[in-house]
Amino acid sequence: MLAALGQGPAYAELPDDWTSALCVAAHPDDLEYGVAAAVATWTDAGKRVTYAMVSSGEAGIGSMDPAVCGPLREQEELDGAALVGVDTVDFLGHADGVIEYGLPLRRDIARAIRTHRPDVVLTAGLDVRPPWGGVDHPDHRAVGLACVDAVRDAANRWVFTDQIAEGLPPWKVRYVLIGATERSTHAVPVGDTLDRGVASLQAHRKYLEGLGPAVPDVEQMLRGMARAFAPRFGGRPCVPVELLEI
C-alpha cells in the first residue's frame, strides 16, 4: 500500500507567500498523523499556525469516561502542538463521535477563521476512503466538508451576520489545503522536521495506549508515509496536500 502512494504526477512546491495558517480537525491527534511535521516546517520558517479542534476527543478511549477523557486529550493536544511550534489551540466543543455537518458547525469554523484571520486554512478527511486504505471516520468527513464551506462563509458579510455585529468582520482566506487526498497537488518538505512530527503524535500517550493491540508503531508509520510520498516530490520526504481554488 505505501509503495502505491509514491505513484502519480509530481507534487508542486506549496506557495510560500503567506504568514499564518489555521488547521482545523475533528479530534485531538488528527493533525499529528502527518500534518504536524509540515506545521513544524512552517513554524521553523516563522509562520504563525493555530489549531482548532472541533471536539475534545472525549469518546476516543473506550475504557475512560468521557468526562475524564476530554480534558486529558485536550492536554495531550496542547503538549503535541507545542512540540511543533503551535501555542494556540481552540476547542470548539462539538460532541466527539457524532459531529454533524450543518450550519452550527460551519458557523463555529467560520468564527474561528474570522477570529484568527489566517492566510491558509488546512483540513482533511473529505473522502470516504483515504489514500492509505480503509474507511475514514465520519467526524473527519463532516469537519472537512464544513471547513471548506466555512471558508466561503467567513468571507461573506451577509453570512453569520451576528459575528460581524460582535466585531468579527469578514475574512477571505488565500489558500485552502486538504491533507493527503488522492488528488493532492502540492507537498511540504519534512525531512528536517519529522522528529518533531513523530514526537507530537507520541505526546498523545494515553490515547495511543487506549488503542490497545491496534496501536501503530508511530515512528515507523510517519517516517514510512513521508518516504512513500517522496518519489513524487523529487525524492524528498514530504506531506502532500491538495490546494483548492475557492
Automatic annotation (TrEMBL):
Pfam families: PIG-L. GO terms for molecular function: hydrolase activity, acting on carbon-nitrogen (but not peptide) bonds, in linear amides. SUPFAM superfamilies: LmbE-like (SSF102588). Transmembrane segments: none annotated. Keywords: Zinc. GO terms for biological process: glycoside metabolic process. This is PIG-L family deacetylase. It comes from Nakamurella leprariae.
